[in-house]
Amino acid sequence: MEGSRLRLSGTGEGFSTIVRTVLSGADSPQKVFAALQLLFPEVEIGEVPGEPSFGHASNHEWSFEDLSLSTFLTQLHEQRILDTALDAMSLNMNEESTTFQISRQAAVAGKIAFPIPGDRPVGGVFEISIIGNGLADWLQAATWHPGRSQVPRHINDERSMNDDGESATWV
Predict the structure, then answer these.
(1) How big is the chain by its Cα radius of gyration, in Å?
(2) pLDDT by position in tens, the chain (length 171)
(3) Residue 98 · residue 142 · CB < 8 Å
(4) Domain 2-149 class in CATH
């Protein structure tokens, strides 16, 4: 039954996405771009900058607009981290936009990991912004899973993770 469920992608649904990352120091542009493509396969760049070398550090800022969230959302479902995703993706949300980060190091393996707010994970981050009307409803639908039939979840409910990334304890 799960396979027949509508899968959201953000594309053609009234939302725009922006994915940003900053490369500095020893960051490998080729590895970062390859990691980005695992979660956003349609991303394109004219030419990937050369690798850093002694005395020539990476110093690039990349921004990609209107990427499909389809592969990203599929990974959230496959990894079974939908409640964590709902919490992390809505932590900095206002009425029509949200911005959150995911680990570039996890993306190298095609996985998604949300850094604890305020932490700077080894390997850097991809910053993702989603903008559009009805964002809260869309996020809840995009991260829905059958377990929510028994234990409903909503943005900022009493089951949301704490600001330090710890899970909330509930009975």
Answers:
(1) 17
(2) 344 444 566 666 789 999 999 999 999 999 999 999 999 999 998 888 888 888 888 889 999 999 999 999 999 999 999 999 999 999 999 989 999 999 999 999 999 999 988 888 889 999 999 999 999 999 989 998 787 767 667 666 666 655 665 655 544
(3) no
(4) alpha beta
Residue with structure tokens 């707010």?
A: 117
- In the numeric block, the tokens 């304890």 are attached to 169
